[in-house]
Design brief:
Length: 217
C-alpha cells in the first residue's frame, strides 16, 4: 500500500472487512461523487498494518488492544491523517454534494461542527488535512499514542474523540491554524449518520463503554 502524503484522498473505516450494506452504499457514494479523489477504506486488520508501517510495532499492538470499534476509528483517523493527509469521513455520513463544491482545499486543516455544537467543540467525524504533520493533528497524535500505549482511560469521547478535539482547540496555539465550519454552512453538502443505524442498541459504543473494558489486555 502507498503511504505517501496525498490530500486529495477520501479515507474511511469500518472494523470488519465487509461493512453493512447500508453503510457500503453511503461509502460508495463518497467515492463515486468525488472522482478527483482517490479512495481508501480500512478495517481493523489493514488499519493495524498501516499504523505499524507508519509508527512502529508498539503502536500497532496498542491499536489491536482497543476493544471498541468506535475508539479504533477515533485513534486511526488521527494517526493516518497526521502522517498521510486526506479527507476523513465517518462511514455513516451521507454525501449530498461533491467535496470540491464546498471544501476549501487550500485550507491546511478543516473540521465541522455538528448541529448545536458551540465553540470550541468540533466533530471528529469529518477532517481534512492538506499538510503533513499539522500541529493540531501532531498534538492529537501525541495524546492518543500516550493513552493507548499505556492502556489508559475509560471515556472514549474524551480520550480520542470530540472531547479531545475540544481540549486542543481551546489552545490558540493550535486553533489558529484550523478552519472550523459551522453546520449551517455545510448542511446542504453533508449529512452525518450514525452506526446505530446498523447495529443493535446494546452493541453501540455509547452502551458498551460503560460495561466493558476499553482494552483486551
Amino acid at each position: 500500500m502507498d503511504y505517501s502524503f496525498i490530500s486529495n484522498r477520501v479515507v474511511q473505516y469500518w472494523d470488519e472487512e465487509d461493512p453493512p450494506s447500508l453503510l457500503r452504499e453511503r461509502m460508495d457514494n463518497w467515492r463515486l461523487a468525488n472522482p478527483d479523489f482517490s479512495y481508501l477504506c480500512f478495517n481493523r486488520s489493514s488499519a493495524a498494518s498501516a499504523l505499524g508501517h507508519l509508527y512502529g510495532e508498539s503502536l500497532r499492538k496498542a491499536f489491536l488492544s482497543i476493544r471498541l470499534p468506535a475508539m479504533q476509528s477515533d485513534v486511526f483517523r488521527v494517526a493516518y491523517l497526521h502522517a498521510c493527509g486526506g479527507v476523513w469521513i465517518d462511514a455513516a455520513s451521507h454525501c449530498l454534494e461533491p467535496l470540491h463544491q464546498w471544501l476549501n482545499l487550500k485550507s491546511s486543516l478543516v473540521l465541522l461542527r455538528r448541529p448545536n455544537m458551540l465553540a470550541p467543540l468540533a466533530s471528529n467525524g469529518f477532517i481534512y488535512s492538506s499538510v503533513p504533520q499539522h500541529p493540531f493533528l501532531a498534538e492529537a497524535m501525541k495524546r492518543v499514542a500516550a493513552i493507548i500505549e499505556n492502556r489508559q482511560g475509560n471515556r472514549i469521547w474524551r480520550l480520542a474523540g470530540a472531547g479531545m478535539f475540544r481540549d486542543i482547540l481551546s489552545d490558540p496555539a493550535f486553533s489558529m491554524s484550523v478552519q472550523v465550519l459551522e453546520w449551517a454552512s455545510v448542511s446542504a453538502f453533508i449529512q452525518f449518520g450514525s452506526s446505530k443505524e446498523v447495529m443493535s442498541p446494546d452493541s453501540h459504543w455509547t452502551v458498551r463503554h460503560n460495561l466493558e473494558p476499553l482494552y483486551f489486555d
